[in-house]
Amino acid sequence: MTKKASHPLKENIRNLKGCLHGGLIKESSEKYGIPEKDILDFSANLNPFGTPFDHPEYGLDYTKLAADALKESVNYPDNRYLELRNAAAKFLNQKNITAENIIPGNGSTEIIRLFCQCVLNEGDKVIIPYPTFGEYEIQCRLQNADIVYIPTESVYDLTEEELSAAKIIFICNPNNPTAVLRKRSDLLKLAEKCARAKTVLFMDEAFIELSNPEESLCDMAAENDYVFVMRSLTKCFALPGIRLGFGVASKNIADALNQARLSWNLSPLQEKTGAAFLSMPGGVNSDYLQNSRKMILREAIYLKDELSKIWGFEPGVVTTNYLLIDISKRTLNSSELAERFARHGILIRDCISFKGLDTDFIRIAVRTRDENRRFVQTVSKVFDEWAKEFAENELQNTLAKHKKGSRQNERETCEYYPCHFDGQDCTFCYCPFYPCIDERTGGTYVHSTKRNGKIWSCTDCYIPHMTEVVEKMLDGLMEDGDTEGLLKKEWLEIIVPILEERDSNKILMCCRKIRTEKIKSADKN
Known about the structure:
Strand order of the largest sheet: 2-8-7-6-5-3-4
Largest sheet: 7 strands, mixed
Structural class: alpha/beta
Oligomer: single chain
Number of strands: 15
Number of helices: 18
């Protein structure tokens, strides 16, 4: 007789960890003691143009919708949800899509779960290209499916044999978090391959209305049992709390999913709000969504241009309302960076939970110009604060080693700056005077905005790496007194004479020679 577990949960559920998401405003408010109204959320990717209710020109009135919904709330909702399904079909602007192809969902995550429940048996294989949205994995694990991960760039290299071994392949377009937008022409070829392999191509198009709807496969989903398209209304209409999404499938697939979904999964308020949004003239190309896309493109380019000026910040492609930023060149990792931003009342998405990104990436939403400026300026503050703390810790460690009679004079590699030269002294790995803000050292601002958002870079300053300077600094810092006072004294007595070229060793001249040689070497390469 098989011994029962200590609780009734299935084995694959017992150790399941939920998917991490952004938008944790209440939690962050409690943690950091910052009022919710003062928190700026760059971690959730919503339409920065605002909701249709924010624009009187579109004639939508939330109060009236809520009042109409209240009248219907005394009864169970009509589980057919014909008002929403008809509006969704019209919204997509495709002749072959009708209400019979639409599956309403309480947000896109319910659609993912419903589809996985209806398609997957225990042990079935699914293909998930990474990095991508984490809910695919969670919903597949709930069905105890076997997940095959592949790098996202390998999707089109899959053979029919490899595809046929899986029940579903998930594609997010544009992809979350990379923002890469796949071309419809390429996806059509993949869809044909999937149909031959009897593998479902699950297209998550949650952000496509804010990117380029022309790349959608919704028309193909209406006629192909092996293509399924999911859309989200909460992203493009900036109302995540309403919880709205829908799926697009062939009639026989949609009929089955509508039978299998939870009864009454939408309230009258959800249905009426969704139908109102989807019924704006022009559908996916309504004036509201066209203006949204224009604003997003403009602001995403602005953010990418400004952040690209900051050393160690490498923003990815501009296609939709978020940017993936590579911070691997910085010593500060994504988790610590997210923590420091949160202390300033700005939430960013730490990408540590995305497979393949580790602690080297953050994702930020595209917001309004004023909000985007505030973000750029906060980058300066965050790195300044971190640098000062880091410099103080490094200095104390250096002095402790010096008291014990040890020094680290040389390194072959440097994780902080590409500042090495022959004979460099690395005792002060990180300059204790940072940021000195004196361009006579060779240091400079690598980023500056009209609102004075600045990052001080020491990349071309070699003074604290000259042996003569290091020895003088160590002698001075070992004297009695507080560290801050001793550093001020050393700046005046050691560094200032060098900058004014009054030192006997002509150290500044040596530094200039090093910079010149490095520039010549770089030009040759």
